[in-house]
Amino acid sequence: MWLHVYSNSVDAKEHLAIVFGAHTRSRSLDAERPGETELDRMTRGAYVGRLYPGRTSSRVDQLKRAEHTEPAHGRPEPAALPLVRIHSECYTGETVWSARCDCGEQLDEAARLMADPTLSPAGGAIIYLRQEGRGIGLGEKLKAYNLQDLGNDTYEANILLRHPADARSYGLATAMLMDLGLGGERGIRLLTNNPDKVHAVEGPGREVVVRERVAMVPLAWKTGGAQGIKSEEVEKYLSTKIEKFKHMLDQKS
Ligand SMILES: Nc1nc2c(ncn2[C@@H]2O[C@H](COP(=O)(O)OP(=O)(O)OP(=O)(O)O)[C@@H](O)[C@H]2O)c(=O)[nH]1
């Protein structure tokens, strides 16, 4: 598993690509940068294989000679398509165990699927975008939670705060997928229930092609309540996603 950090010219945030499997590499990371030394390359993560005390080169050829191994990106690509999840930051659900949403469960489940070579032979990538609270930020999201406690749903609460119901965009995700070599005609499988994501991530010129949409069914629904997040709030949240955000999720699944 590799973690790539992307800076960008749209916002001041560091967005992440969490990459599973040896077939996916970042073009911008591997590219030569003027004036850099081999130590610079290894320090910023532009190397192949593993680091070890005394290693002096980031290069594939030297590694091949030294270790008699095939470089990761010299292997043939598997026939299956890589699995991708575009995930938006949720501090409350992922870090402080809020029972109001299924975000933490979705992040864990995406990683589990991508890390299992029988379920995802071509590996995959989680594009982790720093769009907390559907893009309104953590402070505003906490206000939205208070409005939800006063009887509004997650959609209405954003509107009452004079925010769009969903203020996110996915241009950075498209650019990151292209940098990871996941753009183009071959296509990806996208793990989501959100119809806006499927359309938006493909980009204006269909730079990324979604060949298959893979549903994210809540674990509690799949297991009759034996696993996954269970609460009155999360059920209400999921119903609102289906009714108002038109999420492609069958309540009976
Ligand atoms: N404003 C607001 N944001 C929320 C609330 N609950 C969760 N979120 C945010 O909603 C976003 C959830 O995003 P994703 O997990 O990418 O998914 P999604 O749009 O629901 O679609 P899927 O791909 O089907 O999961 C995150 O940014 C969360 O922080 C809420 O009640 N109010």
UniProtKB/TrEMBL annotation:
GO biological process: riboflavin biosynthetic process
Recorded metabolic or biological pathway in which this protein acts: Cofactor biosynthesis; riboflavin biosynthesis
Enzymatic class: hydrolase
Region described as Disordered: 58-77
Reactions accelerated catalytically: GTP + 4 H2O = 2,5-diamino-6-hydroxy-4-(5-phosphoribosylamino)-pyrimidine + formate + 2 phosphate + 3 H(+)
UniProt key word Ribosomal protein: no
EC number assigned by the record: 3.5.4.25
InterPro entries with a match to the protein in the record: GTP_cyclohydro_II, RibA, RibA-like_sf
UniProt domain GTP cyclohydrolase II: residue ranges: 62-211
Claim: Nucleotide-binding is one of the keywords in the record: yes
Keyword terms, alphabetized: GTP-binding, Hydrolase, Nucleotide-binding, Riboflavin biosynthesis
A GO term for molecular function: GTP cyclohydrolase II activity
Family under the similarity heading: Belongs to the GTP cyclohydrolase II family.
PANTHER family in alphabetical order: GTP CYCLOHYDROLASE II-RELATED, GTP CYCLOHYDROLASE-2
Protein name as catalogued: GTP cyclohydrolase II
Organism: Ampelomyces quisqualis
